[in-house]
Please model this.
Amino acid sequence: MEIARDSLDQEACYRAVLTRDPRFDGRFFTCVKTTGIYCRPVCPARTPKRENMNFVASAAAAEETGFRACLRCRPETAPDMGAWRGTSNTVSRALGLIEAGALDEGDVDGLAARLGVGERHLRRLFRQHLGAAPVSVAQTRRVLLAKALIHQTDLGMAEVALASGFGSVRRFNETFQSLYGRPPSALRRRAERQGDGGVRLSLPYRPPYEIEAMLAALTARGEMVEGEVWHRELTPETDGASGEVLARFEGGNRLAVTVAASDLKALPGVLARVRRVFDLSADPEAIQRDLSADPLLAPLVRAQSGLRLPGDWIDEAADMASDRLEDERLAARAEQWRPWRAYGALHLRKACMRIMESDDEKDAA
Model:
């Protein structure tokens, strides 16, 4: 059962919801007409009647049409993956910039200019791949980040507004009142709140994930990793604030992140960079499906389908990291790997390393 990339198969989505299939968590969202709520495919609530359900490619598409996030399955905790992944370089780059706060103070014209495309073309791409306008995507990002901060931290409401990219507390309150019919403080559950020591959030990812391989790759390139905890210092020049960020993997396919920053406005950008460094938005199922078409890669991908690409803290390249190819000797063969050329090259490097290690062991014996 496969969901089409550019348009959703409504009946396939319904079957996924009936079985609460976790493979589809984050790939689409369910809008329930009778309640005005949108949910993840894995929501534990009783499945509504088919005629009362509609399926959309993104949380932004649901909110743009007037649906509010379910307080039970909490869409902000779904893996960060949508129907657009691997389909549009421009949309991928735009979403990365929006996640880092490009539309918190700027406008769509400025975003389009940074991407080298026209504003109308950018809007058309967002409609095609996400079913929503760029400004709606930006607002949904703010709302879902704010909900995560409300549920998972002890930040005051004014601090949550600042850290999630809202321009003012008034706008923050009005948005939540409009979406949920209650002030944001009413969403807080004391049992879930954490103590001091910075802003701590749990970022989801889609399994499988080769954790040891990722930590080894980060260590090899000089990143600070001690006791399975990754650490980075924040600087005002790069991050907009001083401080530090820590990350470690935890149960439930999540990366626990702690950010201690001198300015909470820096939080969205820091979280966006953490997601990029740890490649949390990767879709292993799509990568394995596409790369397995190459007989050379098929057994390698099956053996380590959770390999991820360690990303750069600052990445201003014009193309998607997943499609970059450093070894031009692979260029001809790698054309069939698009848009996952970098993953194909990574699997080949890992295979060569395993062969070399095996030969070394034989020589030592």
